[in-house]
Amino acid sequence: MSNRVVAFDAAATAAAPRADLPRWDLSTVYPGLDSSAFAAGFAATLSRIDDLVALFDEEGVGSERGSAAADLDGFERVLAAFNALLDEVETLESYLYAFVTTDSRDETAQARMGALQAKKVVLSKLHRRWDAWVGAADVEALARRSESAAAHLYQLRRSRTSAVHQMPRDQEDLAAELGPAGGVAWEKLYDTVTSQIEVEVDLPATEDDPGGRQRLPMSEVRNLAW
To answer: Exposure of 61 by Cβ count < 10 A (0-12 exposed, 13-18 middle, 19+ buried)?
Structure first.
């Protein structure tokens, strides 16, 4: 999520008045970070992560009780719930991403993003359990029995490959828990600090703008490179 890159034309960016630059319309997702709709949606998504943990436990996902092929109905139920939740989380994270990447000083957005990333540790653990569960099955045979499995065969094959390289579950859980304090924390610090750095650059002249030296945030300067 955090590796999105948007290309800008340097001359067009220099010529366009700031008021005319494109803007994200986030109201199609939630009215605002301080809205009751966002608060309810945020809480509901985090709650559904816990619900998915309960479903994984109920179906024995990643346990020694068997593989994804043992109970076809259970497999399809888990697959549908997992997909639905991942869609929710992606939408929520993208919504917050739009705030923190345009204003890293937005404390409300940063706090919400931090809370979501902490909860995503649970999702990371579920991913490892899913891979182990799928990896214990014959995914080709599973795809012949289930239309849902057939539609996800490429990803099931990737999960099977990932399962081969997994550590024991307690070590995988530890690695997931260390993520927010390791690479994720460094990436967040880098993005926050660099977004608040301003530098002077010489912009090219265009028909509508004489160009010249301007002071811009480092994030805008990086975009000019494209």
So the answer is: buried
Residue ranges of the alpha helices (H) in 60-138? Answer: 72-100, 107-135
Q: Give the C-alpha distances (Å, rounded to integers) separating 83 from 123, 149, 158.
A: 12, 12, 16
pLDDT digits (tens, 9 = 90+) for 208-224: 777 788 887 777 777 77
Across-strand partners of 198? 217
Q: Which of 163, 211, 222 is nearest to 14 (CA)?
A: 211
- Cβ pair 137, 67 in contact under 8 A: yes
pLDDT of 78-135, one tens digit each?
999 999 999 999 999 999 988 888 787 888 998 999 899 889 999 999 999 999 999 9
